[in-house]
Design brief:
The protein is mainly beta. It is about 10% helix and about 45% strand.
Length: about 325
Amino acid sequence: MKKHYLGFLTGLFCLVAFLGSAALAARPSSSAAQAPSVVLKPDLTIGVEDGDENLMFGKIIRIDIDGKGNIYVLDYKFRKVVMCGPDGRHLRTIAVPAGQGPREATNLSGIAVTPGGTLFVNDTRKVIVYGPDGQFIRSFLVDFMVSSIGCPGTEDLVAIGPNGGKILHVFDQTGKLLASFGDTFTPPAELEPMKDMPMFGAPILFNCAKDGRIFVLNPHKYEISVFKDRKLELILEGRSELFKPIQKMGRGFVSTAAHIVKSGDFVFVAFQNPDPRAKKTADVFQAGKQAGTIDVPGTPYVADSQGRIFFAEEEGFPKVVRYTVVKN
């Protein structure tokens, strides 16, 4: 019964994120009216419509990079992690079969890559670890629910999930818990009875920049907590009609999820939207202030050391496109 219950909860979180963004898909943004002076220029595409099966994607749900600039793509539909070189050349494919074995995943929800090339695959309460050579090393269990993982420029893993009053947790590569930080978010008074539910204490998604910063969206208001060296560095405050706090809908709750990517002086905030036909935008922050909103071609996941952002795009066929951020 416990396994079925966990699977139900994980499915519920996915449904919450989907419903939250689907309900907001057609609403215009009320972010700062003037667009910031920044342009995205594509310089690399990974993915084909037909041909090499290693480069054919079904549903890209995460992109990450290592210290050498190698690119890792998690394909949820085809249950694989594809590794490509900085030039986009295919290097290897790691299959992640469905199941509960050490090398299998029941809930394939994310990946994270260290500078040295260690790859982590998230399975909600289990993490699968692969070495820089792509070989399976181990898997380890986590005694609380982990909805998202990342590597902020270190060889350790950071996971998000309310536990012991904290939301961010640092693990070494053997699964040892090294530290926990970041207080859980406090819901408004009308949702106080729900405060012990995981989704009310922390968002289901967070992002790590390779400079060590970690970005966490408050699920109750448009505020982004920025952590550095396991301490709160600042809070970014934004405005957008696309953001809605957790609210009751029918018998469940809906929540807004976002992908947050830092590129140089800019921080891009793209609210998740599962409809590939909907117009995609990202709020842009500069020097700690919201500077405006720009149209984006897909979902941003990570930026490399040069500030180039990797997007997952769906138009035509699923692919990864890298963009250079150019100031006007």
